[in-house]
Amino acid sequence: MAKTDIPTPPGTGLVGKLTPDQKELLKEMWAEIFQIADSGALNVPNDLLPAANAAVETASIKSKTTTKKGWFGSKKETTTTTVVVEQASTRVNLADIGLSVDQLRPALWNNILGDHPDSLLLRFLRARKWNVTNGMNMILKAFKWRLEDDIEEVKSKSEDELDAKYRGFRLQMEMGKSYVHGTDKLGRPVVYINVRLHKPADQDPKALEKFTIYVMETGRLMIQPPVETACLIFDMTGFGLSNMDYGFVKFLVQCFEAYYPESLGVLVIHKAPFVFWGVWKIIEPWLDPVVASKIRFTRTDKELTEIIDADHLPTKYDGGRDQYAYQYLPVVAGENDRMKDTETKERLLEEWKAIMWKFEALTREWIACKKTEGARAEEVIEAERLALTKELRVAYFKLDPYIRARNLYHRSEHPVLQADGTSVWTYKN
Question: Is the pLDDT of residue 89 over 50?
Fold first, then answer.
């Protein structure tokens, strides 16, 4: 396990592009997840533990009968879980985090979706400079946040249902405050944010948070391998101090740093007026250096064409040739009827989970292959894991319409989100 932070060499750290050392660290992280899922015990190499802290503490976590989010559903359970953790100042203690063992696997796989499972772990490893301990700490806290904030809600409920619960949710979409359209020159989906349309009092703060998560979770579907990040355009045209919302900025920064690490490719602050620079002096110290390094300022529309091809850039920007104009299409009656078909949902869920279990078993073999005499060749196991990831993706997107409400990008004239999980953009040049 890495004792010190190490940088990611250019061109490495992604699925299929790991150095031998990175591969071993990825194996270590998978091994820790399995160990927690199996027994709740976190083993720490002796050389990482001071002698005074080498003792083992046992903590009991007792929960009352509660409604819990499981495999895309809710169930009532009463559980008593014993978690064994190592007493080390840098070590993850599930009891302190507030995450129980039985929540781990659903939190993991509900987050993976149709992606390569390694991709999620690698995001947290890169974010913590390949320190497995810190990466585990970070990912478990992210899982806890997803459970506490009920991230599955923004996927399973329609925009109308979310608006009924969170005042002003649908308004964000109707006014076009933020939307995704097209890709930049590196194939990253582009998220446009029209800051002048934001008035903090127009919606409940929680509605804005939920809308932000909605955009994040929807945008994830548009990031197509091998691309792993998105491009954000903060259009500051017409910005005034009445548009400033420091609470929201802090939430957005936290999302990119803690909950969706390594998902930001570039953040463009476009046409910032003079009044913004006083605000920027307050915001800049909040930013993690990694996030700050991805911020770019543009003064003219022409500069945007250095990032986004002119054929992909809407004509509202000078030099853009795509005659796209955002329009919100409301929920269509019956579009989520498949979510009521619980029999098909359960069948598809079990098919997806069966492949998941195979992937986990193969990953355990992959972790141990160099340690076990007579083990199968690592290259053979890796090829089988890759084949299973493709099966996982197919199975997940068969299940998707039974667990995810349709959204704007499913119901448009030229749907962006396809049934097989791919994204198809239509440009009007």
Answer: no
